Amino acid sequence: MAKESRGTGGNSPYLSHVLAGAFRDATERRLFHLVTSAPVPRHLAIIMDGNRRYAKFNGLLVHDGHVQGKEKLEELLNWCLEVGVRILTVYALSTENLARPPAEINPLMELFAASFREIAVDERVHRNRIRVRAFGNLALLPPFVRDAIEVAETATRAYTDYHYNVAIAYGGREEIVRAIRRIASEVRAGRLEPESIGPETVSREMYTADLPDPDLIFRTSGEERISNFLLWQSAYAELYFADVLWPGLTRLDFLRAIRAFQDRQRRYGE
User: 97 catalytic, yes or no?
Assistant: First the structure.
């Protein structure tokens, strides 16, 4: 007697999930091969936007969104090492963000301090010789955060293979004003002639003076603006905007951004 044939109706959602996962994995493998077979951005800058909205959409506390954002940054560092991005600059906190309520800012500062102290002893950092630096108006940060930054910077100061920069208490316009003031002081002291001031003069006064300008600026959250981030340095950067909140970023999203950069023809104003 033949056995009764059973349908897969009850399992179809599960099967769909499995098939979707397999397709995603295959796509990710293919993209990784393409990305690592072509030149990648030497300097990648990321606007990590969406922690608070991610928390709200997932029924979490705002601080939990920031914690998950920190964990995503840990993943991002691995992804950059995998594909060979040598310089990573992340926008962690703008000067405008400092005006947020103390109930959000104070735990965030604790998170920053813990993160810098952790990265100072991170095995990946020392194995790959990653120099860690923070830039911005650091005087606006609490002393315990500045102390943690100094620990991370001191522990990695001798490294030059990779660079990991954290823009914190940072504003692009403020950085440019700071550069103008420093140049004006040089002119007033008679060490610089006004006629000799050019773009390279200003670049030398940027926080990133010893680094190449970013090749790619990548923003999450679906917003399509750079929000006062690396205004001077982004003159010829390629821009990429992803419609995903920062803690929800996947490796596939990251690879798509790098691949989109590789598919573009950079013209540098030509």
Answer: yes
Q: At what angle do helices 12-36 and 251-262 cross, to 10 degrees?
A: 40
- What string of pLDDT tens digits covers the 270 residues of the chain? 444 444 445 567 766 666 666 778 899 999 999 999 999 999 999 999 999 999 999 999 999 999 999 999 999 999 999 999 999 999 999 999 999 999 999 999 999 999 999 999 999 999 999 999 999 999 999 999 999 999 999 999 999 999 999 999 999 999 999 999 999 999 999 999 999 999 999 999 999 999 999 999 999 999 999 999 999 999 999 999 999 999 999 999 999 999 999 999 776 656
As a CATH number, domain 54-262 is 3.40.1180.10
Domain boundaries, the chain: 54-262
Instruction: DSSP letter for 266, please.
Output: -
Q: What pTM does this model have?
A: 0.90
Which among 49, 122, 213, 215 is annotated as catalytic?
A: 49
Nearest to 214 by CA among 148, 179, 142, 165: 165
Note if 49 is an active site residue: yes
- Kindly state the tokens that stand for 189: 């002291």
11, 51, 97, 215: which one is catalytic?
97
